[in-house]
Every structure is written in structure tokens, then in C-alpha cells.
Fold this protein.
Amino acid sequence: MTSNALVLWDVDRTLVYVGEADRAVYREAFLQVVGREATRLPERGTGRTMPLAVRELLVANGIDHQAVERLAEQIVQLLPQLLAKRSEQLRDHGHIMPGAPAALEAVHVHPGLVPTVVTGNLQRSAEIKLHAFNLDQYVDLAVGGFASDDSHRPALVGIAQRRAAARYGTAFGRSNTVIIGDSLEDVRTGAQGGARVIAVASGTTSTDQLAAAGADHVLDSLSDTPALLRAVADLTAAGRQ
């Protein structure tokens, strides 16, 4: 099987918004591991990977630097377990981002595109979030790049490219890989990791900020599916074959 282009979806604030679930899970994991309440939580909507956010959480709450790595490993292991218990909360207090189902389906059924995810979530956390909203059916999670693979997000692009190449029989690089995401971190991930970027101003970052950061295309939302597919074609080898 050969495919023309690899499409790497971001998850949070691009496809779904999970309300306070992540922050509640950070609080609960910190309390279980450290034994006291966290008074400061990671900044919202940055796109950083969960392991880095956990380290930020520990440092911001006064944990001695010598204990940060050990405690971070324990918290990271807990996060998916605690999130899985909140599947109902995800559905009740979160929502699918506008246009996401139609956009996902259009990419999924396109014969030249391989859809998966590159995300700051751990793999199991990403699976839980997408499954809660029945969106996992549109992406091949077996070839994605996750924070459980590497805490340095740009490295996840290469991981996904290699996995997809092994599964689909196509070599993937910058010319035929595109990230769709909402944050400055998504833009940086593409620039440093080896992918073009379609930025969607559905998170906490404006269209002007995303364009200034170097996104190749900027969309207001995912609601215009034909515009999204045109952007994917423009940026990848799929549009030149």
C-alpha cells in the first residue's frame, strides 16, 4: 500500500476541548504522589508535552529539583489511569471543536492521505480523549507520535513518519507531512521536526500570532472542510501528483 501524504492531527483545542479534566487530573496526581495540594497548575493551551508540564507543575509548587525527575515519573504513570476514570466528565463538560468530525472524516477517506496524531498527550491519554468523542475511528493511532515516546515534541514528527513509513510503504518527510494544530508549539514542532503546518485559531493563539510564528496556512477553524483539504494538498506532495 502506498500513500502520498501524512497528516498529523493535534488533539487538544484542535479536535476536542476537555474542559477542566486535565487540570483536575494534574491536581489529583500531584496530591497522590506528593501528599499535598498543588497551588499552581501548568499554563493552559501551550501545547507542551505532558511530561514537561508535570515537571513545570512540580517546580512551580516548590518541589526540590533533586526530587523532580523521580516524582515526575510517578505522576506521568498515573495520568492516564486518572483520566480514564473521567470519561463521563470529558463528554459532559468538554466538546468537539467546530468542524472537527467532518474534517477528520474527509482526511480519513481521502485515498492519498494517512491521518494520525502528533500530540503532547501520552498515547493512552490521547486514546481516551478521542474515544470519548468517537473520533478515534478517523485516525491510525498505531503510527502516531506521543509524549510517551519523547517529551521533546518536535521529535514526535520523525517517530510518526517512521512508523507510518513502515506500515504504509511510503517514505515521509517535510515535503509530504503536514501538522494540523492550534498552538505556537504545533508551529515549532513542524518547523523543527520536519513537517509543514496548518494552524487553526481554535485555541488560545490568534491567527496573527500563528502566522507570525511561521505557520504555512492559518485557518479560523476546521469548519471549512474544502479549504482544509486544499491547504493539505498545497503543502504536501499529494497536491503535486
Summary: Strands lie at 5-9, 16-17, 95-96, 113-117, 177-181, 196-200, 217-219.
